[in-house]
Write a structure and sequence with these properties.
Four copies of one chain form a homotetramer. By secondary structure, chain A is mainly α. Helix content of chain A is 79%, strand content 0%. Chain A folds into two domains: 1-44, Arc Repressor Mutant, subunit A, CATH 1.10.10.60; 45-215, Tetracycline Repressor, domain 2. The longest helix of chain A has 27 residues, at 108-134. Chain B binds a DNA duplex through helix 3.
DNA sequence: AATGAATGAGTTTTCATTCAT
DNA sequence: AATGAATGAAAACTCATTCAT
């Protein structure tokens, strides 16, 4: 990908997160980069095209970072790493989640892309959960329960930040609050073996400390 | 409220749910009702005004139905009722949740109304949870845990339907799936006394049956 | 005239002066009076009709107050009285002068009414000037000079207030400044006999005192 | 400035003068030029922007032509030149004066620009008057009298044309009548030395002749 | 590759006026 | 006399997209 094209994507992501995807005009993006609108349309055939390619980038990053887990040869407690990886991505592509429904209505093509990506994510999460159950880090769950656990986990990871931002305007705290919410959500599904793993306690301690620091 | 005004609100809700709030123009609403745009603006001073009044209606319905619980004189297991009530409302005002972030960026006044309503909702949910713990239907929880439980419950009740709609296009099932998700989410926090309450099993049975029926 | 009709005219004048004639909608007038728009249109066939009737009222007041002068049997210095009378009227119907051109373009019928009234005014002023020259209060002037003196006097009396309002936002002072401007404008045309008349000095003294009072 | 932008300004001035600034819509301007409204908004961010830039152009022209006077090294009778320069400009930007008050109510930003320009103009006129008194072309005047002379001169130069246009529909004559009004207004303030200057008589003769020519 | 002028269809909003009651 | 709901035409403004250069 040409660096100009990459720049457009990065600027778009930044502006979409700040001011909303639907409220950000193509002219606004171009102005922000100091290039012409025409040039933007040289690289992308329309605004939806930018969105679709952002989505592709998101997917790519997601699976790149998660494939590293190598479930087959790994017997470890993987949740901490998993949560961390995901949190970074979701923060970067925030608007994809918070504005998803508005975007879908406006750009019909986008829905299909989104759906296929979400199915991949679900499969990956299922694999992780099954793996963690097998190795005794999570409690036994029925098939049904697993599916809804995945659904809930996915929703929470996407929407928590948005929720806390409406409750109160504290960007720094809210990001941590969102992580803590997810953390507490998983609690009941973990076994004693998971609690004994030091990485889990580390994560909790860090999150609580950060929230406390900012609140002071 | 005049019936014309009520009609405008109802039509707006329907169109906002179907085609998105931001994609639905005031002209679209008026055309759909067979009235002139000018007439619409006779009842509402602008589009945001429609939204704010929808929000008020939503709040009113929410608290009307929930105040019936009468926590002080009630020792019963209330979750089933609570979930049912909420589910109906959230289905009707779906767009308020799925498009919330896009709406907030476009209509700044709306954010303030939304925030105040959410705080009221949070307080009510806290009251319910504390009540259910006191009467032995929920497990003991620390203050921190309660706050995040509320956050997670609220997010899930708002976003579940949206999630399932992206996974698959089955409007009828998805509404039930969303309820099931919330149902499973609450599982770990309930005591044996709650499970023993027949209303809980009824709810689960109904939901599973409905999903199964449609899926066939 | 019915009192309701009179009320509409009075309210319109007040609002037109405060917020501009073109910026004041018929609904705004009706709301301000607590009556319905329909009722307003019962008394006036359209907005222009209100304007034309305001103009008639203005003319009526103007000639009512000026006919009292009785030029034929009066040998006195009349300028002071004349200026005072006119100043009161022009303050009340301010918008008629400051917005005249915009109104004329928007309401073509209005221009004709305005023209005929202005001709009447010009005739009256000519009569006054000729009278004052005859009785030695004003210097001798050629026909041409009289016509332009009238023109200038009329323009200044109409536009002075507007000028001072743009220079600085001091409503109370500006009204006096406008009168002073007119006062100084007339200076060179007055004879010693006029200066000797005490009413003239009184007027100057009053105006200067009022300006000084407010400025402190 | 791009020629398209200049065209928009020129067309706007022409239409504003002919049909009134408030009665001329942006679409009307665009149609008149054979361009799209969107294109107009490419050059100006809104209608007020057009107005403000017209005002800037007016100011620029005004001071460009008046700075040529070079008061410091000039001992001449400057009124004739001054009046001529100003007359040309005021004719071109007529609507700025005749519709000023309506415009100010509608475009609040415009008032501030207008005020600052008027203050500059007043300063320039004060300089001119003081200069002419010093060199014996005008009679001695007190500070107060000078300020009101400026006010009156400014008002008359702006509003005379409007006045005569209401009295009678003779565009060509009216422009001259307006100049004559101003001419006669200044009469009493000029010294014999000024009258002896041939340029003054020339001006009067020309104006009278032009009026007479057209009237025949 | 890049520009930036231009378009057209759309949006929200305003308002004088009408009219059934 | 009076209401107030309803209209239609117009206003200002936006924006994704195109295209000659």
């Amino acid at each position: 990908m040409s660096s100009r094209k990459k720049d457009i994507i990065d600027t778009s992501i930044a502006l979409f997160n700040q001011e909303g995807c639907l409220s950000t005009s193509t002219r606004h993006i171009a102005d922000n980069m100091g290039i012409s609108v025409g040039n933007l349309y040289y690289y992308f055939k329309n605004k939806e095209d930018i969105l679709v390619q952002i989505l592709q980038e998101y997917t790519h990053s997601l699976f790149e970072s998660l494939h590293a887990f190598d479930f087959a040869n790994n017997r470890q407690f993987l949740f901490k790493e998993f949560l961390l990886q995901i949190q970074i991505l979701d923060a970067k592509y925030k608007f994809l989640h918070t504005e998803m429904h508005s975007i879908i209505v406006t750009f019909p093509q986008f829905k299909l892309s989104m759906r296929s990506i979400m199915n991949d994510e679900v499969n990956l999460m299922r694999k992780l959960i099954v793996h963690q159950i097998e190795h005794g880090y999570m409690v036994e769950l029925e098939k049904n329960e697993i599916e809804h656990l995945i659904a809930n986990a996915r929703i929470l990871k996407l929407s928590s930040a948005g929720y806390w931002n409406i409750i109160e305007d504290r960007p720094q705290v809210n990001s941590q609050m969102a992580s803590l919410s997810l953390f507490y959500f998983l609690h009941p599904y973990l076994t004693q073996k998971a609690y004994d793993d030091e990485s889990w306690h580390q994560l909790e301690a860090n999150l609580l400390k950060e929230v406390a620091d900012v609140k002071m």
